[in-house]
Amino acid sequence: MAKVKENELHKSGTPVVGILTGSPSDLDVVKKAEDTLHSLGIPCELFVLSAHRTPELTVRYCREAESRGIEVIIACAGMAAHLAGVVAAHTFLPVIGVPLKASLDGLDALLSTVQMPPGVPVATVGIDGAKNAAYLAARILARKFPELTGRLQEDLAQQQTRYDNPFAEKKK
Ligand code: RP5
């Protein structure tokens, strides 16, 4: 598959973000990353791959991702969360790690994801921070696809409207 060229993000529809997660049980949280990328008009793909249960498939995905046009990988996992680290060990694409709350309030996954050795970085967002992973991916992509900067600005402006009349907001 051809790589997406400069400024062609919108036209091609070729996924530029790969979202991976360690289990089907993660999908409710992880789909927030997919939804956020879609809302920003960023083509992405989502696969359930595990560092522990499907290691060969995970490595194959990493080895093929760049040549298929992927620019950033978001890797989500709970418990002994090794997925993001394993992905970062098998590709030079930027990897964003999302620790998921599957046990111990997510602290186990946070520490497993964030504490990478020098030279193999994982940019780790907060526990269950799938949305922020998507926003960080968008900011990275905006360096290559400048159209995204305007969309990010519009998105933030929309979020700021909550502050125009804060006392009108109902409790969730
Ligand atoms: C991790 O173990 C997954 O990312 C998931 O968060 C957790 C539990 O997985 P399941 O036992 O629900 O499949 O690898």
Describe the secondary structure blueprint for this structure.
Blueprint: H1 9-12, E1 17-21, H2 27-39, E2 44-48, H3 55-65, E3 72-78, H4 83-89, E4 95-100, H5 107-114, E5 123-124, H6 130-142, H7 147-160
Parallel strand pairs: 1-2, 1-3, 3-4, 4-5
Helix pairs in contact: 2-6, 6-7
Bound molecules: 5-O-phosphono-beta-D-ribofuranose.
Give an overview in words.
The chain is α/β, with parallel strands linked by helices. It is 41% helix and 15% strand. It has 7 helices and 5 strands, in the order αβαβαβαβαβαα. The chain has helices at 9-12, 27-39, 55-65, 83-89, 107-114, 130-142, 147-160, and strands spanning 17-21, 44-48, 72-78, 95-100, 123-124. A 5-stranded parallel beta sheet has the order 2-1-3-4-5, with helices on both faces. α2 (27-39) links the parallel β1 (17-21) and β2. α2 runs parallel beside α6 (130-142) and α6 runs antiparallel to α7 (147-160). The chain is globular and about 50 Å long. The termini are far apart. The model has no long low-confidence stretch (mean pLDDT 94). The protein binds 5-O-phosphono-beta-D-ribofuranose.
